[in-house]
Amino acid sequence: MKKSLFVLVAAVVAALLTGCGAYKSQASYDAKSKVLTANYDGSYVIRVQVKARNAAIAFTDAQRKAVKEVLFEGVDAGSNGIEALKPICFDMNIQAKREDYFNAFFVDGGDWTKYVSLHDKRTATTTYERNGKQMVQMVTVTVKRNELKARMQADGIIPAQNMYEL
After folding, report:
1. How many Å apart are CA 151 and CA 60, to the nearest integer?
2. What are the tens digits of pLDDT across the range 51-108?
């Protein structure tokens, strides 16, 4: 009786401990975007992870996410010696303050599409992981950071360069 009770308790404890871990597909959702290369024209190649139902939606979401990260959050450094990108808009509340502007800027097919491309995307650089109805993709995107910064300065979102004289 004691032996069978001990085996039962051990089996329950083992089942509880093995069920606590995160699934592989869920753990991979939290990967941060990384800068892969810096081009001479002021553009950056960024590796972005997105979740979507299909590849077409994923590519559009990856491009939009890359532009948003360059504008508001910054992008982490990659493993090849490229430094991390600081955000263009340093004001933490700029998105809320200028909500009308950014809603019009990030609409489907909006002006944000002028500053991003899949130019440096190669056939083997996109990785897929499917779980149920969603697909997790790592997409390589090129963002024209200098042109985006110039646009934000021209529209009065961020101060123009050399505004402060010493």
Report:
1. 21
2. 888 888 888 999 999 999 999 999 999 877 888 999 999 888 999 999 999 999 999 9
Predicted structure pTM score: 0.75
Give 76-117 as a DSSP string: B--TTSPPPBPPS---TTHHHHTHHHHHHHTSTTSGGGGGEE
Residue 83 burial class via C-beta count within 10 angstroms: exposed 0-12, middle 13-18, buried 19 and up = exposed
